[in-house]
Amino acid sequence: MNQNSSTSEDTIDLKELFFSLIAQWKLIALCTIFSLICALLYLRVTQPVYSTDALILVEDGKSAASAALLGELSQLSGGMGQKSPADAEIEVLKSRMVLGQVIQDLNLNIKIKDSTDSVLNRLIAVEQPKVQYTPSEVVYQNGDTSVQIKQLNIPDFYLDKPLQLNFNTPNTFQIHYKDAVVFEGKTNIKNQTPSQYGLWEIHIAKDSTSTPEFEITKYSLPTAMKNLMLDYAVAERGKMTGVIGLNYQGTDKEHITKVLNHILNVYHKQNIERKSLESTQTLAFLDKQLPILKQQLNDSEIQFNKFREKYNTVDVTQESELLLKQNIELERLMIELKQKQAEFSAKYTSDHPLMAEINAQLTELNSKKEQLNKALKQLPETQRLYLQLYRDVKVNAEQYTALLNNYQQLKIANAGEIGNVRIVDTAVKPFEKIKPKSLIVLILSIFVGGLLGTLLALLRNMMRSGIKDSAQIENELDLPVYATVPRSPVQENRINVLKKKKNIPILAVKHSDDIAIESLRSMRTAIHFALSSAKNNLITISGPAPEIGKSFISTNLATILAQSDKRVLIVDADLRRGYLHKYFNYDTQPGLTEFLNGQQTLDAVIRPTEVPGLSIISRGQSPANPSELLSSAQFKALLDQLSEKFDHVIIDTPPILAVTDGIIIAQYTGVNLVIARYAKTQMKELELTLNRFEQAGVKVNGFILNDIQRSAGSGYGYNYAYAYKANKESD
Fold this sequence. Notes:
Blueprint: H1 2-10, H2 14-23, H3 25-45, E1 50-58, H4 64-70, H5 73-76, H6 86-93, H7 96-106, E2 110-114, H8 119-124, E3 130-133, E4 138-142, E5 145-153, E6 163-169, E7 172-177, E8 180-186, E9 190-195, E10 198-206, E11 213-218, H9 221-229, E12 232-236, E13 243-250, H10 253-311, H11 318-345, H12 353-377, H13 381-415, E14 421-425, H14 438-463, H15 470-477, E15 481-486, H16 489-498, H17 507-510, H18 515-521, H19 523-532, E16 538-542, H20 550-562, E17 568-572, H21 592-596, H22 602-605, E18 607-608, E19 614-617, H23 626-630, H24 633-645, E20 648-652, H25 661-666, E21 671-677, H26 683-695, E22 702-708
Helix pairs in contact: 3-14, 4-10, 4-13, 7-9, 7-10, 10-13, 11-12, 11-13
């Protein structure tokens, strides 16, 4: 049995939980509306962000200079062509070489904004300010206010620091830093002023009559790079594709398009310059070598002609011709390799693989040349001299002709150099914003608001640890619960308004079919049984604390009993704060206080009501000693008279745990009922209330559980404020 009870206590009733949330739909709806309003305000003050993109293709290819200069030797050395991986180009696109140039060209290192700019101003502003960046100036435009910063060169000390720009007059301005004037100048002209930190060069134009304050900042290159990189992204599309995607985001569609296209132009231009640098250096080398080779050719031809004139002609044997051809070929190859060695030595170190390969080839050619020279030395003197002179002429002629051809080819290749990258897609002005997504934000706000409202509703349920089941009262206190009164939808909607008025309608009269009234009707039989064994027909309605509905229960119960053709009297014994008179459209006086003080007769204080058979004694003027009046013999005698005069006398008492008045009254009555409010009254409060009655020797007949929230979640309610202090009404 204990195990089953523990299991039952640990089980969560999902149906009850669901309908408890439904009963708090107003709280959930309020949180949802609040979240939706916050989302709308966010969308209003947040500028839309746009995005534009571009594509670059990195192509593989050999250098035109290398191909023109080396020819067949490029195959011999493994080729001069060098691939440009996309990863390397991505780093170049992020480098200061490219982005720094863009920042400098478009003045992206200058920031200007209105000092009065705030969330509230953006919320109510009809037109948002706009900043335009051009190579010549930075323009701030906001309605009729226009400021152009044509030049802003400041000392390095003030870089990355916010400066205040104030226009004192239409023709002058001041720049402040930490409330100190650091520069003064005139508008529409270039101002130069030296200072202890360096030279100021500022040119600011102004086209408005207003004199707003601005905050300007000149960023250093690293800071400007950092700011640019926040909205700039470069990545390869796919894997090993060589296609690079560029993306740039911002609030100005025209600005981001212009910036990204400028990045493309700067990068493409620098790529061409970088790729054509080899050709340029090679052309410069050939410009120096061609005159030397031409002079060598002329000298060799002169010497050869002189030799022929001196010895006429010489018959060259077949062996000599073969040696001559081999020597000429070796000399040509050696000269070409030495030229490449001279060129590579300006680019690479001696440990470079290309330099090592050329040196190895030169060593091999020198070895072959020595062998040919030994063979030539064995020839006759005249024949040997002829071959040497003829060899010099042929070698110089071929070398000069080859370099001249390469020079012409290199000039053509250099003129047509396009680099190894190709711009596939340029940036175009976007039309759709990427954030904030209005629909998504609104949907999320509704979801978050509903979730927050649900969490608050669950928290309220957790904090409402009061009595929620009549069986709990009966099991722990061993007393019956006479009735469970559900929450009335009529009273819930009207009670806050009615409390401010002088008259409160009686629910049993105006809405007799209300579910709360039907529950009170079920009490009549139980009350009759209780009165049959009671010492008198006096019924007290009390409770442990304020705000539990005693006056509501007392008034409507008395009305129901009177509708059964009974003579019923309701007495407002709450001399401090009672307001039963408002249900019957009466003033507080004359009432119980005036009778106990001997100021009024009993007939004067007993007043009829609109309900047939029902009379009322109001509380009267709030006395200074209510407990003493209720303890007096006059009050006991009054109750005796009323018991004989009426079939039922219902007495509304003050809270038991607040004052002792209720205990005093209960000593004279036959039936004592205690009101408990659903989810508000604690079991400990009821226990303390019973102890108070037991200490006074008074029996409690039972309880009434008021303001039940049905699991059907229909939203009944009787809720009102009960501030327990003396009412100083004098009438």
